[in-house]
Structures are given as structure tokens and as C-alpha cells.
Design goal:
heterodimer; A: 115 residues; mainly beta; four-stranded antiparallel beta sheet; 12 strands; B: mainly beta; 11 strands; 0% helix; globular
């Protein structure tokens, strides 16, 4: 079984500042990892994914994440945020040997970008 | 390519009633998963259907059920509604076959269910 912990429930940051949203996972097997973003009254949009290969993953809207197997982490970063990045961000995991597409989500991190 | 379509977007139901939600996945996708999102519990997996068969199931009571049709469209049904069933219900579409891309899920905008 897998689980995900997002270490910060809320992250306030000023516009054009860098930001890091932290995600740790637990799993006895290899995993696939994802970050999703949810804007108010919307569904989830895939930001980026780690399936295999390079541990530094680049996604949409200037976001990137680094898979660290030894620390079981998959932190999301952006060097300079915009007001439009204000949203809730979810980290998700799926076991490599799981059958099907079931995702386990963290509790989410509310990113609030202030002018 | 059309995205994932969920209908209706909003629903208000009375306790004890039953409700059916619909999800049309991306063309070519054979897997549909359902999630419940609430402020207290976050995003919780309900079940997944692949080629008209339930492939995975979360920890929800039997009042929650689903099905998938031959065109991959899926419906989710909740019977004997309770106040605690008020939530955003999200449908996720994925290819569903073998390999890592089976897990790459695309979400609909959700159905907001309010039980009064």
C-alpha cells in the first residue's frame, strides 16, 4: 500500500518569489508520482509526472519536481510565482505493480500568491 | 481532442434519495476512476472500471456503486443519500492498459452534490 504526506497545508508567498511545496510518500514498492493543480470549482489538472528515468521532471507553467528515492520525496518547485498560480496542489502516488489506475492523494497544499 | 465530461455539474438532493452521475472519458481511454473530494477527507478513491469491469474498489459502503458501458462511459450511483455524501465527485479517465501511462489520469470538472 502507498500513502502520501504533504507537509504544508497552506503556503503564502509573494509574487515573483520562489516556492517549494513538499511531498513525501511511503511505499514498499517502486512508485509513479504526480503533481496535480486544482483551481476553484474545477477538476484536477496534471502538472507533471515521474514515471522513470531522470529524477528532475519539468512540467507545465514553469513547475518542476525532483524525485528523491532515498528521502522518499517529490517536492514541487517554481523559481518565480505569479498571482495566477494561486490554487490547491495535490501530490499523488501509484505503485508500479498495482493493477489499474488508482491514485493515492495527499491532503493538498493551498498556494496563495500575494501581490 | 475532447476532455473528460461530467454531468451534471451541480445537484441538490434530499436525504434518502438516490442519485446517478455520469462521466464520458477521453476518446480511446478505457479506464474510468471515481473520486470523492471533501474538505475533511480530501480526495478519496471510490472505484475504477476498465473494459466494463470493476478493477479496483476503495473503502466506501455498498450504497456507492458504478458501472461502465461498452463505449467506456461510466455512471456512478449513490443510494439512500446521507448528509455526509455532500462532496465534489471527480471522474478520471486514463488509457488503463499496461505500462506506466496507464496511471496518467485526466480529470473532469466534477459534479458538486449537495444533500439537504
Amino acid at each position: 500500500a502507498q500513502s502520501v504526506t504533504q507537509l504544508d497545508s497552506q503556503v503564502p508567498v509573494f509574487e515573483e518569489a520562489p516556492v517549494e511545496l513538499r511531498c513525501n510518500y511511503s511505499s514498499s514498492v517502486s512508485v509513479y508520482l504526480f503533481w496535480y493543480v486544482q483551481y476553484p470549482n474545477q477538476g484536477l489538472q496534471l502538472l507533471l509526472k515521474y514515471l522513470s528515468g531522470s529524477t528532475l521532471v519539468k512540467g507545465i507553467n514553469g513547475f518542476e519536481a525532483e524525485f528523491n528515492k532515498s528521502q522518499t520525496s517529490f517536492h514541487l518547485r517554481k523559481p518565480s510565482v505569479h498571482i495566477s498560480d494561486t490554487a490547491e496542489y495535490f501530490c499523488a502516488v501509484s505503485g508500479v505493480y498495482n493493477q489499474g489506475g488508482k491514485l493515492i492523494f495527499g491532503q493538498g497544499t493551498e498556494l496563495s500568491v500575494k501581490p | 481532442k475532447a476532455g473528460v465530461t461530467q454531468t451534471p455539474r451541480y445537484l441538490i438532493k434530499t436525504r434518502g434519495q438516490q442519485v446517478t452521475l455520469s462521466c464520458s472519458p477521453i476518446s480511446g481511454h478505457r479506464s474510468v476512476s471515481w473520486y470523492q473530494q471533501t474538505p475533511g477527507q480530501g480526495l478519496q478513491f471510490l472505484f475504477e472500471y476498465f473494459s466494463e469491469t470493476q478493477r479496483n474498489k476503495g473503502n466506501f459502503p455498498g450504497r456507492f456503486s458504478g458501472r461502465q458501458f461498452s463505449n467506456s462511459r461510466s455512471e456512478m450511483n449513490v443510494s439512500t443519500l446521507e448528509l455526509g455524501d455532500s462532496a465534489l465527485y471527480l471522474c478520471a479517465s486514463s488509457w488503463g492498459g499496461r505500462g506506466p501511462s496507464r496511471t496518467e489520469a485526466f480529470f473532469g470538472q466534477g459534479t458538486r452534490l449537495t444533500v439537504v
